Amino acid sequence: MxxxxxxxSYGASIILIFFGLIFLIASSIEPTRVFPGLAMLILGxxxxxxxxxxxxxxxxKEMLESKVISLARRKGGxxxxxxxxxxxxxxxxxxxxxxxxxxxxxxxxxxxKRIGDEGVEVYRILGTES
Length: 130
What we know:
By secondary structure, the chain is mainly alpha-helical. The chain is built from 5 helices and 3 strands; from the N terminus they run ααβααβαβ. The chain has a 3-stranded antiparallel sheet with strand order 1-3-2. It is rod-shaped. It starts with a helix and ends in a 5-residue tail after the last strand.
């Protein structure tokens, strides 16, 4: 389901592309309309391209989060930042952000007992215990 932001940006893109084409057609009569027409056309296409890239980035993050959950299942429900970074082959800061994102969504939390035992941040991922 598309969000309101998506609908508005695609709507604005369609309007820009439409008027860009109108200006390009009108440029056969008035050549000075070529530049505004091209600008509107490029801007409309640029907004669509940017939207597609944002969607792809969101899907990529969701895919990585699902891999973190799978890793936690394999490890008995508990993972560390180092586990995530090593298993997913991502930098440590990306692994931290993934775990913080899961924590914000309420799917993970720090297990302070294990932190005291192991000396590193240990996250418990809910619903993955064996």
